[in-house]
Amino acid sequence: MFEALGISPYQLYGQLVLGLINGSFYALLSLGLAVIFGLLNVINFAHGALYMLGAFGAYFALTLFGINYWGALILVPIGMALIGVFIERTMLKRLYQLDHLYGLLLTFGLALILEGAFRHYYGSSGMPYAAPKELQGPLNLGFMVLPLYRAWVIIVSLVLCFSTWFLIERTRLGAVLRASTENPILAQAFGINVPLLLTLTYAGGVALAGIAGVLAAPIYQVNPAMGSNLIIVIFAVVVVGGMGSILGAIVTGYALGILEGLTKVFYPPASAIVIFAVMAIVLLVRPAGLFGRGE
Amino acid sequence: MKKLMASLSLSVCTLALSYLPTSAQTVSTTPVKIGVLNDQSGVYADYGGKWSVEAARMAVEDFGGEVLGKKIEIVFADHQNKADIGSNIARQWYDVDGVDMITELTNSGVALAVHDISKQKKKIDMVVGGASSRLTGDACHSTGFHWTYDTRALGVGTGGALTKAGGTSWYFLTADYAFGYALEKDTSAIVTSNGGKVLGAVKHPLNSADFSSFLLQAQASKAKVIGLANAGLDTTNAIKQAAEFGIVAGGQKLAGLLFTLSEAHGLGLQAAQGVVATEGYYSDVNADTRAFADRFFKRTNRMPNMVQAGTYSSVLAYLKAVKAVGSKDADAVAAKIRSEPVNDLTVKGGKVLANGRMVHDMYLLEVKKPSESKGAWDYYKLLATIPGEEAFFKLEESGCNLK
Fold it and tell me: Is the CB of B212 less than 8 angstroms away from the CB of A294?
């Protein structure tokens, strides 16, 4: 039936897989954003810049310290988590009592500073970063040529998304986290160290952005604008999924990635806006998002 | 939820605000003022960017810093690849700040808009970074110039060379705006006139990070050559991802139709090797081009590409004409620029046609293999020099009605 539209089924499968890869990045990033919003009530506009920082982290690890991709995949998220702790402890913490807007302005400012600084020192055309030897080369699936590295990205992203969801929704730690968000005073009365939990949550969200950055480094040019290109799409994903809904962020991330991939086949010029069109429709029909509970 | 949505709408506004023009740095007392208007923070910031401003300053210094007994001043601004922002800055410069000439103008969309404003206001503009051959075609005007290169010259250079070398079927990845269309159209014409065939094209939005879908479509077309009718970060991302999908390894050739030294540097030799490119300036042609590159490198710690070298050349040509005429009168200066040959450190024997097109030799270059490179910034080998008369449209072919 697709032949009627001038598109072979093979081509369509190929695009579905590609959409899944883009969706992996959307899901990973919007997941971090959703966790941070859900538990801290902070709209973390610096998320894109932190993702960029993760990619640069991989580049620095290789060029300055000779640490390869696998090392970076472990060390960069740890370093990013520490940066997250620093941001939360020194700045964000002071804003919890205030309106959402203040957290948003602070993180937006941070994003501008980070991106401006990197652009100043590294220019806009970016830095090269190669995929690890083990994951180079294409994988022939019959209907398409899938680079091995991209298959790896899908797997890592699925595992991370599932573990994060499981951690928050199905474990005791997650229950404590959710209780602390729901009613911090009561949780504290039960002896739970709420401020520490919030710090760890932010650090965890930032580490997720860092991992996404390392995963992206071999695919995209490592450049200062890579985060700001993505952050607006990520926000759209979170809004469609329902602010703060973890499952919503994951499912919507993959779904919108696939939808975007399909748009690139049927009508490429619209591929940049299709996600926002969906966002507008969802906001009209279900203002709390697809998985949001509303108030 | 209401509050949250208010926050989100505000955040969208904040984002929009961040795209407002950063105010141009101007002082309004000096008599000869040259504006460098280009992308200084986006996809093309390394392609021209602040480095072009530095090249313009070099031209002013080489000229002696003064003309008509007054200081020469360079102002610059970031148009962020938006035609409306670029137009506003150009109007402000011409009407309020007393800017006499605007140059660089990377991004054909912005260049065409500013070109039109210059025409209405009878001011001189010299496009260097913008590529569309329409600037000296149907959009030409008597005080507008196009320096260094255009989509036609790129098509003749890279398109012609690859078609003659056996790349007889083409598929284009085209940036979805004026520049991409012009580059695709001009290159297609060269490909077909050399006996080649164009199998199709896919248009992608400017500033796409992910090219895999488009590359897959190009791969499925089975074309021998995939022409990248885009520039800057779009080109580097496309080339990098093409390697991932085994496109070059599978026997298809990639043509970076607008590919400069900056992109080669950003990609690194491993990913960029074998890319064939056409530039209007190459540092290793003669003693003068080397001297220019060395001085540029000392100031910026990077080697110039054709856009930066071209900005230097255009500013110098303008200043020479102002001096020769003895006034800033746009018509007189423009006539002088047309009548004089162009000779400086970066261009030899250039001549300016009635439509404003500066015709000079172009260079067909290939990115070296990592093993061939002798060190940092040694990226190119020269394949051929294309005579200017072959590379550019003749006046009567250009579609411009100026005589």
Answer: no
